[in-house]
Amino acid sequence: MSRGLGVPRLSTTKVQLVARIIIADDDEIMGQIACDALVAHGHGAGLVGDGTDALRVVKAKRPDLLVLDCNMPGLSGVLVLRELRNTIGLADLPVMMLTGRRGAKDEELAMFAGADDYMRKPFDPEEFVFRVEELLTKHKARAAVR
């Protein structure tokens, strides 16, 4: 019996962008679901529980993307976002709002403050990862043009 040489197959899956992502959410269960979904797709993810910690960690660690809840102790997600958009070196950090707020006005406020995406809880982990990776891809493309 002869054995042929293995021919490599071309993958049709999307190339994974391995990124460092901070999730700021005071709902530990939702935050952990988001972290686990990102880690399962090869990303590094860390969870903080309030807006003040989110700002501190983002300034210290300089992640590739930030996921923010709107309602958190300390600073709200929108206040964190406004601060980041006014901080040199962090103004263009991709930010996704992941929140239980369902109103159109809440989404408008977050987008006006500078959010790049807005996703409502409860969320599908696969859709969440897809949208995070879309933001990372767009951010990388914008950075390449500069």
TrEMBL record:
Residues 20-136 form the Response regulatory domain. GO terms for biological process: phosphorelay signal transduction system. Keywords: Phosphoprotein. The modification 4-aspartylphosphate is found at residue 69. It comes from the Bacteria. Transmembrane segments: none annotated. The keyword Kinase does not apply. It holds the Pfam family Response_reg. This is Response regulator.
